[in-house]
Amino acid sequence: MAAAGLGAAAEAAASVPKRAAELRMAQGHALEEQVKDAAAALEAFSHALELDPEDLPAMVAVTRTAAKAGNWPAAARAAGQAMVVRERFEPSLIAELESHATDAESWTALARGLASVVASLTGVAEGAADEKRHMPRGLAQSLEMVVAGWYRDHANDLDAAEQAARRAVDLRSDQARGPRAARIAAAPRARAGARGDLEPHRRAERANARCPARSCDGGH
């Protein structure tokens, strides 16, 4: 069935949300893979996610097509939601986001988008109390370090990188706030000419975040 037909079928099945979501997913795949229209595919996948907010494949599809379409807030939000549902840091989703950022402007928009998601899902942002999901501290810390790296390595914004790194430090428990945490916060400005300064910290945080987020919450 062509994409238009799948869309019409989804509308006709509106009274059965699960079926309508499946049809929207099929429509999105047709638009992405056959028509090669990322923006239209994103719209279809977004409809599917609205109909079934817990559907992980829809979150991943929104992440992918939003990144292709340059809709960085939508891409970052879907990626963050997927990681919360999966209860772990997902390097593959980060790689998907990174693969479509092409210049400093897109990297900045992507970093802002992911930082906004972290703030929203950790209760920091205004209105975050209305969120149905909550991002565990260990996952949020790992994502803030990713944001710091993006600002530092791709957007050439050391101030924003330092702010993100300090937010990561603030997410640590009081017990963990020590010399190592201070070094993480200072890393974006240390040896500003070297792109790899944040990488040891980012690799460590990604490794720590591979455990289920609830376990991470209890272990820091």
How would you sum up this structure, described in words?
The protein has 220 residues and is mainly alpha-helical. It has a domain at 89-219. It has helices at residues 3-12, 17-35, 38-51, 56-69, 72-86, 91-98, 104-121, 137-153, 158-170, 179-186, 199-209, 213-219. Helix 3 packs antiparallel against helix 4 (56-69) and helix 9 (158-170) packs antiparallel against helix 10. 44% of the residues are buried.
Question: Any chance you could write out the topology, listing elements then pairs?
Answer:
Elements: H1 3-12, H2 17-35, H3 38-51, H4 56-69, H5 72-86, H6 91-98, H7 104-121, H8 137-153, H9 158-170, H10 179-186, H11 199-209, H12 213-219
Helix pairs in contact: 1-2, 2-3, 3-4, 4-5, 5-7, 7-8, 8-9, 8-11, 9-10
Brief write-up:
This protein is an all-alpha fold.
Gross morphology: elongated
> Helical stretch count?
12
The termini sit apart by 51 Å
- Mean pLDDT, rounded to whole units? 84
Alpha-beta classification: mainly alpha
Q: How many strands appear in the DSSP assignment?
A: 0
Largest sheet: none
Which sequence of SSEs, written as H and E, runs from N to C? HHHHHHHHHHHH
Helix percentage range: over 70%
Radius of gyration: 19 Å
User: What percentage of the residues does DSSP assign to strands (E)?
Assistant: under 5%
Query: Low-confidence segments, ≥5 residues, pLDDT <50?
Result: 212-220
